[in-house]
Amino acid sequence: MTKEKRLYLPSESEDFQATIRARQVEQDVYFSTDPRDLGWIAENIPCQAACPALTNVPGYIRTIFEERYGRSYELNRFVNLLPGVLGRICSRPCEPACRHGWEGNGEPVAICRLKRSAADLKPLGHRITEEMFGPSGKSVAVVGSGPAGLGAAHDLAILGHKVVMFESLAEPGGMLRYGIPAFRLPRDVLATEIGNLLRLGVDLHCNTRVGKDVDIEDLMKQHDAVILAAGTLKPNRIKMPGAGLPGVYTGLEFMMRVNAGEKIAVGDVVHVIGGGYTAMDCARTAMRLGARRAIINVLGTEDFLQVEKHELFEVKLERGEVRGLVSIQAVLGKDRVEGVRFKRNRLGGFLPNGERDGIPIEGSDFEEPAGAVILAIGQQPDAEFIGAGVNKSERGRPTADPKTFMTSRPGLFLAGDFMTGAATIIKAIASGRRTAWKADEYMMGRQRKKLVTRHEKAGILRERSWDFIARQEAPTLKPAERGQGDGFGEVEQGYDSAPAREESKRCYLCYLKFEIDVGRCIYCRWCIDVAPKDCIKLARGVKFKEDGSYAGIEATEDWREVAAIAIDNKECIRCGACLKICPVQCIDVVKVELIEQPVAERPRR
């Protein structure tokens, strides 16, 4: 652990904290790599643990309450790099994990919308800062400029390497630009945040396809490492009659052509096959292109689809339809699409992704008219350009060491969807950054960045009444307004400052660690009596996991076994009632945050 002295100024709060705000307290700040501290964050800040990028959710939400929007934006950008983008289109794995959404606690905090608030409300003159390393003399090629490639390029540039990026399409962004419609992600927001990453000196080459315009062998010779973050540009296809007719599109092809500016004629009725996010986007886009009906056909039922309920709501609000328990059998037509033949299904078992399978029922065929059919059934990496010399899976995908992300060929790394198959944007960014760190370690011969916990004393930062604030709804365009202009204006409008601040109050601030000093505690039990939740317990011991991290409290009701009165931070709602009532002031509050730190080089002997 390392320590530093600093002047601690308590954050803004409400009237009952006036005495805390009036004082300045000199306090130790220390950093730790103890597995018990790292494990405490994983156990007690479930939103951060659920985020693949490990975003400091309580930290950025608290600074929104303080109306320090620029700081909130930077706390996001330190790890997820694209706050304005993710605040609109993230799959939000943090929100189902939010403790405010646990039984009896209400609805989860609108974490994703608050991320967008940080981006939207930051000052126009906000200055982005980066903690840059000195030039390393090393060079890295990054293939692909989607979220994984951007994440890798950013961190490699921060670490002092020369970065050359190759993109096969006309502009950077990958599926962010070509796979997601503008009504969900405005292109000016995307361009600004990509520009903030590329400005670090990344040398970008668009319209350059590795394997055709540039040979991968040349890249391996010219650079100290190569990272393949080429995404999943090879659509999955169904072998069936009529699949090659004009008017049949893959989901990826359809969205890429529309996002490139093409006005595709889709007819009156569009059938979308598949139930993922791309299928939802295709249906909503088809309605904007003039379809009278857009029907999303899925094998199972919508109850088991792995998309947010919010996305399903928006589809239906725009008159899209979701039809379950059907399997496509053939596309009908002579010179182009005229109809579709389906079979009805019965529910089968669960698929690996958590959805329910659908099993076709013989003799249940039926036909429907169609002006277009969109096969949004996923895509996979196109790895043909790699050639021989790299280990591949049975499906022909290149494989990498799960710890180093390096392939069987030294210096050749994988990142994002190209390594894992199609996943989420936030997972791709996190993967790109992790691969960059491992590539840096490979080139430099040692680890140069690490995750540590930062500990600092804090005061009471919440009021109990905030627990009963209702989740703030974000304004959206009315359905009748969504077809105006070109029909691709942004649908969700985001919070203004007032609802953003009100929503920020709902966060439990799980990064605050409440601790009872056993040496000062007089076992009066006042804290237990006043606690609104079952979060303070008589304890006979503490349980630990194999890695040394904290696992929980061994509670008891027998005073003969009591070793301490302990606070269960997983149940604590940070109301501060115990802190205010304690007669001997034996309860401390420490803010614990996960941060990235350079690793000091050991002096040579």
What tags apply to this protein structure?
5-stranded antiparallel sheet, single chain, FAD/NAD(P)-binding domain, 20 helices, alpha/beta, Fumarate Reductase Iron-sulfur Protein, Chain B, domain 2, globular, 5-stranded parallel sheet
How does the major sheet shape up? 5 strands, antiparallel
Order of strands across the widest beta sheet? Answer: 1-2-19-24-20
- Corresponding CATH architecture of the largest domain: Orthogonal Bundle
Unreliable residue stretches: 1-26
Question: Care to describe what's here?
Answer:
This protein has 605 residues and is of the alpha/beta class. The protein has four domains: 2-129 and 452-504, Fumarate Reductase Iron-sulfur Protein, Chain B, domain 2 (Orthogonal Bundle), CATH 1.10.1060; 139-233 and 381-447, FAD/NAD(P)-binding domain, CATH 3.50.50; 242-374, FAD/NAD(P)-binding domain (3-Layer(bba) Sandwich), CATH 3.50.50; 515-598, Alpha-Beta Plaits. The protein is globular. The two termini are 23 Å apart. Mean pLDDT is 91; it is low at 1-26.
Q: How are the elements arranged and paired?
A:
Blueprint: E1 2-8, H1 18-21, E2 25-32, H2 35-44, H3 46-50, H4 57-65, H5 69-80, H6 83-89, H7 94-97, H8 111-121, E3 139-143, H9 147-158, E4 162-166, H10 175-178, H11 187-198, E5 203-205, H12 216-222, E6 225-228, E7 234-235, E8 248-250, H13 251-259, E9 269-273, H14 277-288, E10 293-297, H15 309-317, E11 321-323, E12 326-332, E13 339-350, E14 356-360, E15 366-369, E16 372-375, E17 379-380, E18 412-414, H16 417-420, H17 425-444, E19 449-457, H18 497-504, E20 512-516, H19 526-530, E21 536-544, E22 550-555, E23 564-567, H20 577-581, E24 587-598
Parallel strand pairs: 3-4, 3-6, 4-5, 6-18, 8-16, 9-10, 9-16, 10-11
Antiparallel strand pairs: 1-2, 2-19, 7-17, 12-13, 13-14, 13-15, 19-24, 20-24, 21-22, 21-23
Helix pairs in contact: 4-5, 4-8, 4-18, 5-8, 6-8, 8-18, 9-17, 13-14
